[in-house]
Amino acid sequence: MDHFTYRNGVLHAEDVPLPVIAAAVGTPVYVYSAATFRRHARVFREALSGLPRVHLAYAIKANPNLAVLRLMANEGYGADVVSGGEMVRALAAGMKAEAIVFSGVGKTHGELAAALDAGIGQFNLELEEEGEVLARLAAQRMREGRGQRAPAVLRVNPDVDAGTHAKISTGRKQNKFGVPIADAPAMFARLAKLDGLDLRGVALHIGSQLADLAPLEAAFGRIGALVRELRTAGHTITRVDLGGGLGVPYREDDVLPTPADYGAMVARATAGWDVELQFEPGRVIAGNAGVLLTRVIWVKPGSVAPYVIVDAAMNDLARPALYDAWHDFVAVAPSGARMTANIAGPVCESGDTFAMGRDIDTVHAGDLAVFRTAGAYGATMASTYNSRALVPEVLVDGDRYAVVADRVSPETMIAAERVPEWL
Ligand code: LLP
User: Residue 114 is part of a domain; what is its CATH number?
Assistant: First the structure.
């Protein structure tokens, strides 16, 4: 459910008509609904309320806008971060360091050190050597009389096919993530001996936009067996990070497991584990909370179907070009008429095509339209390719709205570039 609805034939974000935002801020622009974020944050929390101990770490890669992070912090969420930059954002938004989990297969020594100094709550180790480096950095700090053993869990690759797009599948053995589950017990034993590490459990994340809970449940089953094995070997296991991955409906007829279905499955799969369960939801929080508002530049006759050329492009919303992703396209003020069209942006690549031969609201040059379900992995993956301005972001809250990220102009970008004097 979201808060983008038609009132008197005009699409609104909560109480704000989208044409008002287009007139004030221009297009393309991402528009977020604060009420939708809050609702999703609460629905997800509620779905897990039957579990004994839960830590919610919003996967900020999905939508790291500072205002969104503040909103999630206000909802009591911590953060799952995957870079030093995301950590800086989470802290800047007012999230507590202890509530931050640091995931990622390529944390640099500098990032590990910065996160130790910030006092984050957990490092999710992706390989043994990372654990050794982290332990050394922490031990060094302890000798200097600052800091403590680094709280960590070991990310395990359960070798489960999540059944999602190959580029966002992470839990098969050929993927770069985690350590092979068969190697985990011996590795855990070696890492647990290191002075600088406080190894508390295990983590997994098998992929994103999961439309079926069965692979997750299978993976959780393997993790449960691993937890028992580790305990039998004498280790104290107090945390299991179950990652993110719950999908959202991108099309009206998509049927996906709900957060409640997910919560029930988790309760079943983790019964008796006696650990703090950690969750890293991203898309399920942010996906339906945003749209990309765009204006039609031309309707260009095509040999098969007309091309609706909009002022948003693959640099603003990369998902269709990267993953052949579907985003519903609807007119802001539809007339009721329909047309079959291709939808494309102005970037000079055929890949800059959002849809082919799609049945859509009839639009004309100058009309406003939106790509729906663009709140997750939208603005955050935007670039300035073709020297297009970096797309701005607006947050709506009831009848208020604010620009929460400026449009970054080519002039501003040029100001950060240098022509050496020898040219
Ligand atoms: N935790 C870890 C360790 C992850 O790698 C991810 C996503 C998440 C949590 C959050 O997953 P979610 O709940 O959002 O599914 N750009 C792609 C999605 C990449 C997801 C990467 N990892 C897309 O636009 O579909």
Answer: 3.20.20.10
In a domain, 90, yes or no: no
Residue nearest to atom 23 of ligand 1 (CA): 377
Q: Is the CB of 385 under 6 A from ligand 1?
A: no
Whether residue 169 is found in the same domain as residue 272: yes
Is 236 among the domain residues? yes
Per DSSP, what are the bridge partners of residue 402?
A: 395
Q: State whether 177 and 303 are in the same domain.
A: no
Residue nearest to atom 7 of ligand 1 (CA): 208
Evaluate: CB of 317 within 6 angstroms of ligand 1.
no
3-state secondary structure string across 270-325: CCCCCCEEEECCCHHHHHHHEEEEEEEEEEECCCCCCEEEECCCCCCCCHHHHHCC
CA–centroid distance, 304 to ligand 1, in Å, is 36
Prediction pTM value: 0.97
Q: What is the distance in A from the centroid of ligand 1 to the CA of 243? A: 9
Let me know whether 315 and 257 are in one domain: no
Tell me which residues are annotated as active site. Answer: 348
> For residue 43, what are its two tokens?
């629905």
Atom of ligand 1 nearest to the CA of 283: 14
d(CA 220, CA 241): 10
Does residue 45 have its Cβ closer than 6 Å to ligand 1?
Answer: no
Is there a domain that residue 76 lies in? no
Distance 228 CA to ligand 1 centre (A): 28
Residue-wise pLDDT tens digits, 291-319: 999 999 999 998 999 999 999 999 999 99
320 lines ligand 1 (CB under 6 A): no
With b meaning 16 or more CB within 10 Å and e meaning fewer, what string describes 85-111?
ebbebbbebebebebbbbbbeebeeeb
The pair of three-digit structure tokens given for residue 29, joined into one six-digit string: 């622009």
Distance in angstroms (rounded) separating the CA atoms of residues 57 and 245: 13
CB 111 less than 6 A from any atom of ligand 1: no
260 and 291 within one domain? no
Q: Give the tens place of pLDDT for each residue, 365-421.
A: 999 999 999 999 999 999 999 999 999 999 999 999 999 999 999 999 999 999 999
